[in-house]
Amino acid sequence: MKPSRSWLLLCALHGVASMLLWWAREGMVTSLTWHADDWLNQPWTLWTSAWVHMNTPHLISNQLALGLLTAFAWIVRPPIACTLAWLLAWPLTQATLLWWPQVGYAVGLAGLLHAGAMVLAVHLMLRRIEVPKARRWGSLLALALLGKLLLEHGWSSPVVWDSANEMSVVQAAHLSGAFWGLLLGLAAAWRRGPGALRVRPVGPSTPRA
Predict the structure, then answer these.
(1) Which CATH architecture has domain 6-28+50-188?
(2) Using only C-alpha atoms, what is the Rg of the chain?
(3) Cα angle at 110 between 109 and 111, to 5 degrees?
(4) Which pLDDT belongs to residue 130?
(5) How far is the C-alpha of 177 from the C-alpha of 89, rounded, in Å?
(6) From CA 173, how far away is CA 113, in angstroms rounded?
(7) pLDDT at 154
(8) In the predicted model, what is the mean pLDDT of residues 95-107?
(9) Boundaries of every domain in the chain
(10) 48: which of 24, 28, 115, 157 is 20 to 30 A away, CA to CA?
(11) What's the CA gap between 165 and 195, in Å, rounded?
């Protein structure tokens, strides 16, 4: 598949929007925050809530993680199919939190970053991204994500209290993001692009059955 700059542009959007909202007025931030019992009246929050952060450590940690994902994407240059999968995972990651009644609201980039990382892992493992040792890098990234999710067990502990940063962490968002990243990553990679596994052409020197 042909490399695209769209992924990097989307990373830039998330980073800039998160910083701008950090300085926004409280009323505006509230109107952009996803709440489980009121999101139908504010459907845009399925997207905008990812840019809202609770406090400075929350913002910094997500910006650092976004920076790592951006740097990795700069190296592997994912195709536009990856970006489209990540875009679709954006609102779905938030909407899926309705499965957990314990989640009253959710903000931050963490769930979306898990989705993006899983999309890249899938495309690397399937060699839809042409880089040396793509399957190895994809497998390592996928194992790291799965290991983190298993340690968190967000399916049974969707929300935990982080006493160090004095905030609730919605672990279910990490699980939801990784799930949609896997599903949509596989869907986007279903059709082979020009860079998929190449079949060696049959020539005069190639043995034939």
Answers:
(1) Up-down Bundle (1.20)
(2) 19
(3) 100
(4) 87
(5) 7
(6) 10
(7) 95
(8) 97
(9) 6-28+50-188
(10) 157
(11) 44
